[in-house]
What we know:
48% helix, alpha+beta, 235 residues, 18% strand, Immunoglobulin-like
Amino acid sequence: xxxxAIGIFLLLSLLSFSKEYNIGDKITLKxxxxxxxxxxxxxxxxxxxxxLEKDKDGSYIVTFTTYKVGxxxxxxxxxxxxxxxxxxxxxxxxxxxxxxxxxxxxxIETDYPHMGILATIAxxxxxxxxxxxxxxxxxxxxxxxxxxxxxKVNESNWKEKISLELRRYIDNMYGTNFLGGEYNIVSPITExxxxxxxxxxxxxxxxxxxxxxxEYKKRTFExxxxxxxEKKNSV
Length: 235
């Protein structure tokens, strides 16, 4: 069997601090060894491949997305990766949806005319569908994903987690690749914002350097709130 070295690119190494991935997260792998493009596409046929390019050193860099909740196994040559994917829908929201979709909660007056019954059923289905679509849209909302991720920040993981959530929010909002380390200025992102992110990178790779994690967390929320406000004003 061919020997293939799979290097975890910057994106994946950052996500690994959270030990799990949300639906829709972009995962980037750098694959080195004797392998062709078709084999990689075959290995990832169950996933949505965003890009697959050959690097200057002959390795392949592939970025893909998975929407399958649970443990995903990927076999590339003799290397096997396990990726744990979780839903971004909160348990409380899931319980509400399950309650609405339970037929035992549906009441139909038997004395109504048949057309009234059909209209009632159609109305219930429409409400459930609209509610489900709301949950799906909410689960994909970059700000909701950001707040959920920031709620898990603590004194032991803040150097990695704050940087991760801020860059993921920016990528989701502006189609950039901050998670991949490409810090390009895209309006309304400023040089000051990028300097802040770079400083977070320095903290992450300099374990002996301390900082006020609450101050960094506050600053991150200020950046995101400003970006949200400017995004709304530009619409």
